[in-house]
Design a protein that fits this description.
The structure is a single chain. By secondary structure, the protein is an alpha/beta fold. The longest helix has 18 residues.
Amino acid sequence: MAIIEIKNLKKVFNNQANEVVALQDVNIEVEKGEIFGIIGLSGAGKSTLVRMINYLETPTEGEVLFEGKNLGELKDSELRSVRKEIGMIFQNFNLLEQVNVIKNIMFPLEISGVAKDKAVERARELLKLVDLSEKEREFPSKLSGGQKQRVAIARALATNPKVLLCDEATSALDPKTTKQILDLLKKINKELGVTVVIITHQMSVIESICDRVAILENSKVAEIGNVKAVFKAPKSSIGKKLIFGATINKDQEFVKPEGKTCIRLAFDGSMTDKPILANMILETGRTVSILYANSKLIEGKVVGQLIIEVPDDKEVQEHIKEYLEKNEVAYWEVE
C-alpha cells in the first residue's frame, strides 16, 4: 500500500529573467514500510521534490497524497498535523546551536504542546535508540558530524512520524560514519516500521540501503524500479551512467579501445556460483579479454558488471550473444 503518492507533479520557479522548470510530469509511489531512494545529478530536482512531499514547497501542478489525503486540499491546521507524521533530516543537520542535545530533541515536542516530563522521557528514549545517551547535556558544537546527524535523526523521530525524509543526509560525512548512519536508518525502518525516503547523489547509498529507486534527469523521472533490477539492467542513459559510468578513472566512463568490440555483462547475484565466462569460452571455442570488472554487495548478494573484448568475427560475436541470452545474462554492446 502506498503511503506517499506523487501524481503528475510539476514545479516552476519564476524569476525576473525567465521561468525555471525544476520538475515536470513526476509520478512516484512510495510503499508503506520501504526504504525508497531518489537519485540524480546536481540540478535534477531532488531537493525540490523532497520539499514537496511534505508541502514545504507547493507544486505548480499535480498532487501529493499522504495516506490518501491530498495535501493541496488540506487546511493549514490539517497540513501541520500531517507534517508531524513526516520527519526530515538534512545534510547540514540544522540543530539549534544555543541549546544542548536533549533540548534539541525535545524542541518539536514542546512546540506541539507535550508536557515537559513527557518530552524529556521521549527524548531519552530516542537518545538510547541512536546510541547517544551519554551526550544529552552536550552542545552541538562539541559533537562530531556523525553524532550531530544522530541527534537530528532523534529529533525527527520525536513526534513518532510514519515517514522519515533524508535530504542528502550523509553527504557531509566520511565513508565510515556514512555506513553507521545508514545502518541506523535501516534499524529504524526495521524496528519502528518507519518508511524512509532518501534523496542522494551517491549510488553507494542507494545500493546499500534502498529497496526501490527513482532516477531523476532533466527534472523528470528517467527510471524507477527495484534496486536490484535497476542495477542489473538500467534502461535509461542516466541510469547506465550512474551505475556503470564511474569507478574506472575517477568520474570518467569506461573508454573502449579503438576499433574493438566490447560487451558489458551485468550480474544480479543469482549466478555468482556459476562459471558463466568459462563455460562461454568452452562453448564458443574462442577466448575473450576481460577489460574491466566491478562488483557490489546488494541485499547480501554480489551484483556486478564485467566488460569483455570479443573477437572481430561476427559469427563468433553472435554465438557469444546467443550464449548470454540462453543463460539469461543481461548484456550491452559498449558504444
